[in-house]
User: Fold these one by one.
Assistant:
Number 1:
Amino acid sequence: TIMELNKEQRLGHKALILFTLQRSAIPAIIFILSIILLANKTGIANALDKLLGSAKITTAGGAQNVVPILGLGMLVASFLAAAIGALVAWLDYFNYKFALDDYALKIRRGILSKKEIEIPYRQIQDINIDRSLWFRFLGVSRIAILTAGQEEEPEIGEADAQLVILDKAEAESIKEELLKRANVEMVVNAERKMKI
C-alpha cells in the first residue's frame, strides 16, 4: 500500500468488525442466552421451583410466570444494547481518520468530542507494531508511535499516538513510510542547523 500525501484514510474494514465486536459482544451473548431461556422456559422454571423448594415464588404458577418475563426483558435489553454498541462502533470507525502530510502524521478521531493529534515527523523516535495472538489470527496490527520527549518505550496503550487496527501489510507499509519521513526530516533539520 502506497500512502498518498494529504489524503485522509480510514482504518481497514477489519477495524469496523473489531470495533463492533468490542462494543456488542457481551450484549449479543446475553441476547443468545435469553433466547435459550425463553425456548427452555418450562425446564428452567421447574429447576427454579426445585432450587427454591419451600420458598416458591408466590405467584400463580410459581416460576413458570417469572421465567418468560425475565427472558423477554433480557432479550429486549440485550438487543437494544447490541444495536447501540454496533451504532457506536460504526460512528467510531467512520470518525477515525489519519493522513500523512508534508511534515506530520495527523490522526483525527472521536464521536462527540473530536480529538486531533498531529505528530511532526522530526519528533518520531520509534514506531512499534503490536500483534497480539488475537490480532495475528485476524491478520491485523496496532501501531504505537514514540516521540521525542518520552523517556522510555511506552506500552501500546500509553503511546503518544496510535493507529489502532490496520491490516498487517498496511501497518508495515505505514511504519516504513513514517520511519523514512522521520529520517528525512532529521537530515533536513541537521542541514538547516549547520547552515546557521
Note: The beta strands are 9-10, 97-100, 104-109, 115-120, 124-130, 140-147, 161-167.
Number 2:
Amino acid sequence: KGAGDLLARVNLSESQTWDFPMKTLPRPKGKATQVIITEYDLARPEAQPHDVALAPDGTAWYSDFGNQYMGMLDPATGKVTDFAVPVLKPDEPKGLLEIHFDPQGNAWGSMMYQGGIAMYDRKAKKMQAFALPKEWQSNSTQESMVAPNYSSVDGYVWTNNQEDHSILRLNVKTGKFENLGIMKDAKGKQISAYGMPADHHNGLYLLEFGGTSIGHIDAKTKEVQIYPTPSPGSKPRRGRVDEEDRLWFAEYGNNAIAMFDPKTREIKEWQLPTPWELPYDVTPTNSGEAWTGSMFSDQVSRLDSKTGEITEYLLPRSTNIRRVYYDNERKALWVGSNHGASIIRLEPLS
C-alpha cells in the first residue's frame, strides 16, 4: 500500500500537478566552472563504455558492457580501436564490466556471463580468454570483477563468481584457476563482494554492496578480516588503493566517499553535498584528493581530504557514470558515458 500511494502521488494519475515543488540543482560556480571537458565519440554507436582505465602509454581503454569488445582511444588523435573478445558462451549475454592493467601493461577484463576473464597482450597484440572450469559453471556464472594490478607480486589475477559470491584467482603462468570459496573471517562471519580492489601486496579488498562492511583477504595466509563502516546502510560499492595502500571506496547508500587506513584499521567518511548522488566508484589521486561520480545527477565530485572541501563539476549531458579513473600523470579524470557511446576527460584548472 505504501509504495502504491507513493506512485499515485508522482505519476499524476490522481491529480494534475505534483504536491511538492520541482527543484533543479544549482548551476556550477567558482572552482566548479574552471574546468576543460572533452568528449570523445566511440566508433560504434551501440558501445556501452562501463569502465575506463588508462594504459601506461596514455591511451584510454574501455570495457563494453553490452558487446564483446575492449576498446582503445588515442586521446591525441581521437582514433578508436576495438578489440574483439572471444565468445565463450554463445547463448549467454555478451559484454564486459571491469577493466584494469597488470604491471606489464596488459589489459584485463571481466567477461560477466561469458564465464571467464580476458587479457589483451600488448606485446603480442593478441586477445586471450581464460574460461572457468566447466564443472564450476552454470547459466548464471558471472565474473563481474578482475584485479590484475599487482599480479607481479605472486603471479595471480583475482576475479569472482557473483552467482555464489566465491572468490577466484588465476595463475597466469599455468592458466589454471583456484577457487577460494565464500569468504568468512575467523568467527565464521561471511562477506560478499561487489568491488574487489587489490592492494600492493596483491591482497584483496571486498566491498560489501549488499551490506555495510568491507573485508580483506591476505594473499599469503588467505586470512579474512571484516571491518564495519561507521554509518548504517552504507552499501560499499567500488574503489581502489592509493600510494599509501589506503583503500578509497564509494558508500552508495550513505552518499559518501570513504577511506580505510590499514595501519589504524579505521574508516573515515565524507558526505557529498548533493543528496541522492549515490556514488558508484572512488579513485584517489597522489595529492590527497579523491574523485567520485553519480549515476543520476551527471556530476563528478572532487574531495580534498585535507580540508574536507568537495567541488562538484557538472558534465555537459546525461552520462550515467560508473567507474571513475584519475590519471595522476596528466591530472585528468576519465569516465565512460555508459548510455552515450562516448568517453569523457575532465581537466580541472584549479
Note: The longest strand covers residues 176-184.
Number 3:
Amino acid sequence: NNGYPDVAVEYLLNVNSNFLSVEILWMITPGTMAYFGKLNITGNQHIDSNYLKKHVKFKYGEKFSKLKMEETQQELFELGLFRVLTIKANSAAMTDSLVPITLSLKETPRWSLQAGIGYGTDDRLRISGTLTRLHFLGGARKFILGAKRSYFYPLGLDAKFIQPDIINRDLD
C-alpha cells in the first residue's frame, strides 16, 4: 500500500530442539517504488469506460496502493452492473516505475426477472414479480417494474427509474 507491488519475502528457520523453540529470520526486499500506470478496461459492452473511470480510486502517476485497487473493485461491484469484476496490476510489464492496471469485467444480463409465489394463513395466496432492465436509455441507468398480489393487497404495481451519480458519485 506504499508504492511497492513486488515485495519479496524470504525467511530462515533456526530450530532449537533443546529449548523447543524456533527463531525466524525475515528478509524483506521491497523492490522498486512504483506508481499507477495506464488503466486498461476490457469486457464492457454497454457501459462507457468514462463512467467506470469515475469510480476508480486511483489516478495515473499516483503512488501504487493495493488498498486503492481493492476499494475500486468494491465500489464498482456495488453498482450491481457486473457479474464478474477483477482488477490486476501487471508489475511484470512495469516501465519507468509505472505499473499498468487491467480492469476486466463481465456485465450482468440487461434483463432479469424475479418471481415468487407463496401461501400464508393470513394473506392466503401471494404472488410477486420484478422485472429489471439494466442500461436503460444507455449508461448505468436502471428501470425496475414490480407487481404483487395477495388477499390483503389486491394489486400493487410500482416502477423505479434509477439515475446513478446524478450530482456526484454518492447520489442516485
Note: The radius of gyration is 25 Å.
